[in-house]
Structures are given as C-alpha cells and as structure tokens.
C-alpha cells in the first residue's frame, strides 16, 4: 500500500506573473478550489493520506490552506456558507500534512530529493499540482497504483502530444506491452522534433521507488543546469525498472494560461450539468 504522496510546490510560477508574484501558483483556483486541493483529493482517493509538500519562499498560503482557520470558521458557523468548507475539512481530517523547504530552485529532481526527509525508504506518489487530471472512471493516480500493485516499478503517466510540442516535455522511447502499459527503454528531456523518440510525453504523475533518492544524488545536472527527474529515471529504465501508463482521462496543463482557462471551462460546464 502506497501511503505517501509528494507535492513539489516551490516553483515561482513565472508564466502567471504578476498574479503569482505573491500568491503560490498552486493556490490559483479552478472555480472555488485551488489547484493543489484537486491534487490532494486525487492522492487521498488513491489511498495516499500522508501528504508531503516541498515548499519555498512566499508559499505560506499552502500551509494555511490545509489548516484550521478558527476566526473564519467561527464567523460562518451556522450559516449557509459553512458548507463551502466541507471539502477542505474532509482533507484536513483524513490526511496528515508535512512540509519541507527547497532553498534553491534546481529542477524537479532536486525538489523530489529535497522531499526525501518526508518520505523515507518506501515507494511514494508524486503529483504536480499544475497538471490537473480528471481520471475516467477512476483518478489517474489510482490507475497507476493498480499497475504498481501488479508490477512494482517506477511508474510514469504519459499521454500523446503533437510532435510540435515535444520540446515542452520529457519524451519516452518504449516497448508497448498492451493495455496502455509500456516498458520504458529511454527518455529524452525536452527534445527537438528531430531528436524526439516519439510523441509519448511524461506528465505530472509518478510512482517512485525509494532508490530514486540515491540515483538522484549521483545524477549530474542536466538541461538548464537543473537536476532532472527524467535523467534519474533513465538510469532505472536501463535496469528495467520503469513502466509508463497511458492513463484514461483528461489532463489540463494549468501551468499555462490556455490550459488554465480550458480547465476552468471544463469544471464550470460539469458544475452546470450536475
């Protein structure tokens, strides 16, 4: 049973400046819930109730969100507005939250390595909150946990993207095992169209074995002088320890303005039709 999920949440969110100058990008709302709350709900629905969050400067709002606000709750107690806190109260009640700070922004691999102190020596999930996923019929992370239970390995979520966009992603070279499962042979971080091994792109959902921490420690800095999780996973892929899952569902890149708007429209239409 995988009980821990790591949320790297120390980035600057520069694509949404000036909105993210003082507000964490993970707290930007899709309708009335911040992005990171959708991610925590997905983790909990997938059996992960220990939520480990890697934060940074100006990220206090995340910790405050997953905490009790006595003054606010007293003010709306007994009113119709009290029901609006039902979802976050449920998470606070059912999850344990722990935090550590990433002092320097040196890539996703570095953020995950920073989270080692919260994870320990056990398999764990990783959710990037600005990749908002809607699994069909079950959460994307649940689909990955089910695969992990069948074949314990590092699991990465993938989707097909247009070749014109492969330069934005880590892209895999893999053997199709059927039913949306692939054995990963190689990965390239943000390749050009000419260098891309295909159009199967890694998105912000992972299940990682604890040995990833030792691999990250011995991995050299990659593109942009950052510690890339793709490079570390490539080491394990060459040992036959990485699988990819083409998940069932939708994914919104809420790190971009267009993806954020698409997600807002999707959830608004869903709300109207319920």
Question: Topology of this structure?
Answer:
Elements: E1 4-8, E2 29-30, E3 33-34, H1 35-45, E4 50-55, H2 60-65, H3 70-76, H4 86-94, E5 96-101, H5 108-114, H6 116-119, E6 124-127, E7 131-135, H7 140-150, E8 154-160, E9 170-178, E10 181-189, E11 200-208, H8 212-217, H9 229-237, E12 242-246, E13 249-253, H10 257-273
Structure description:
It is a single chain. By secondary structure, the protein is α/β, with parallel strands linked by helices. The protein has a single domain (4-273), classed as Alpha-Beta Complex (Spore Coat Polysaccharide Biosynthesis Protein SpsA, Chain A), CATH 3.90.550. Helices cover 32% and strands 27% of the residues. It has 10 helices and 13 strands. The protein has helices at residues 35-45, 60-65, 70-76, 86-94, 108-114, 116-119, 140-150, 212-217, 229-237, 257-273; strands at residues 4-8, 29-30, 33-34, 50-55, 96-101, 124-127, 131-135, 154-160, 170-178, 181-189, 200-208, 242-246, 249-253. The strands form 3 sheets. Strands 5-4-1-6-11-8-12-10-9 form a 9-stranded mixed β-sheet, with helices on both faces. It has a two-stranded antiparallel ribbon with strand order 2-3. Strand 2 and strand 3 form a beta hairpin. The longest helix has 17 residues, at 257-273. The protein is globular and about 60 Å long. The mean pLDDT is 92.
